[in-house]
Amino acid sequence: MAKQATAEKRQRRERGSINPDDIIKGAFELAEDVGIDNLSMPLLGKHLGVGVTSIYWYFRKKDDLLNAMTDRALKQYVFATPYVKADDWRETLANHARTMRKTFLSNPILCDLILIRSALSPRAAKLGVVAVEKAIENLVEAGLSPEDAFDTYSAVSVHVRGSVVLQRLYDKNRANHGGPGDFEETMVIDPDTTPLLAKLKREGHRMGASDDQNFEYGLECILDHAERLISAR
């Protein structure tokens, strides 16, 4: 949950004593407290102990700063995700997907920068492409056609990102409004009219939720389909 958008004022730095790396590092620190949405140049200046003009010298507007943060977050993300191997494609691709999801769920700032706004970053499209190319190459080596390898990796990526963004929106709705986090929580399930739904809900099943059970089911469906395609070839 994002805290109130305030920052503790530090001792004032000397003029010219800050650089872009200091600013980006400080922006990540501040975002941990107030969230990306509430991050502002004046707050960041107070957090760093500099005048806001010192920040504008390097980043003319907030979007420029967010782009720089996104680029750094993408490098961190690419480094953290494991490779897909041809000789054990199913297990390594599944591990790749689970690690991506775990990384984003454990770091809301990474999620907001990469999954929600990375398309706005001019350099974001260039980062991570080599890793994706290698993953698809290894799926081709494992027996998929280039087209099927591309579609399989794309489906896994969409599945991971969709699951994480749904969870992030759920958390934001709960934090901002204190009410239902998703549509399932607003559903009225009457055992008399929808006995099957009532039974499954009692057993812990959740419709449209980004929980582990739904994520694993979808992931296994994608992997099973890929395995059938390899067998057919």
UniProtKB/TrEMBL annotation:
InterPro entries: DNA-bd_HTH_TetR-type_CS (IPR023772), Homeodomain-like_sf (IPR009057), HTH-type_TetR-like_transc_reg (IPR050109), HTH_TetR (IPR001647), Repressor_TetR_C (IPR004111), Tet_transcr_reg_TetR-rel_C_sf (IPR036271). GO terms for molecular function: DNA-binding transcription factor activity; transcription cis-regulatory region binding. Residues 40-59 bind DNA. Keywords: DNA-binding, Transcription, Transcription regulation. PANTHER family: HTH-TYPE TRANSCRIPTIONAL REGULATOR RUTR, HTH-TYPE TRANSCRIPTIONAL REPRESSOR FATR. It comes from the Bacteria. Residues 17-77 form the HTH tetR-type domain. This is TetR family transcriptional regulator. One of its GO terms (biological process) is negative regulation of DNA-templated transcription.
